[in-house]
Amino acid sequence: MLHELFHGRLLDVPSVPGLHAPASDYDLTPDIRAGLPPDRKLRPAAVLVPVIDRDGGATVLLTLRTDHLSSHPGQVAFPGGRVDDTDRDPVDTALRETWEEIGLDRSFIDIVGALDTYETGTGFSITPVVGLVRPGFSLTLQVDEVAQVFEVPLDFFLDPANHQRESREWRGAMRHYYVMPYDGHHIWGATAGILVNLYNKLKG
Fold this sequence. Notes:
- The protein is an alpha+beta fold.
- The chain has one domain: Nucleoside Triphosphate Pyrophosphohydrolase.
- It contains 5 helices and 12 strands.
- The protein has helices spanning 2-6, 30-34, 90-102, 154-157, 189-203; strands spanning 23-24, 43-52, 59-65, 76-77, 80-82, 109-114, 118-119, 124-133, 146-153, 164-170, 173-182, 185-188.
- Strands 1, 2, 3, 4, 5, 6, 7, 8 and 9 form a 9-stranded mixed sheet that branches. A 3-stranded antiparallel sheet has the order 10-11-12.
- Strand 7 and strand 8 (124-133) form a beta hairpin.
């Protein structure tokens, strides 16, 4: 049943990061995006969007980054990171980083496709790889990077009423972005943008 929800709605996983038309931190602030240099250099990265096939309904697994990290401390994120030279493709990056960060073995993950490449204001081009996760796994957190993992019902993200919008000044300009508060967790920024893209693929 869960496979049917995703069938034909996602993009093929690119062999090279950044091949898909991008979504962006600036999607809600198009005037800023229009002013970005077209040849700006972005660092390739990939994340796993883990959708767990629970009996009570599908959930999305997210991580809470530790407070002492130099990049995005204390934020909610997907497992993932920069592409290494030894990675074969974005899937390899996402699965490797997921194993390193939370100990989720790739044997429990069925890759079903990709979302639009997501460009961040901090200079990354992220390939979000969607994987359906079979229950029965165990996790071992990399405590230097991950403070906590938690699950959110997929239906929560597929309800546009939960796609709130906020604004703040950043680098001298007003930026608008998505926020999805859930059970005390502040889901925003690139993570929320990727989840809106997931909604658009499945429901748009």
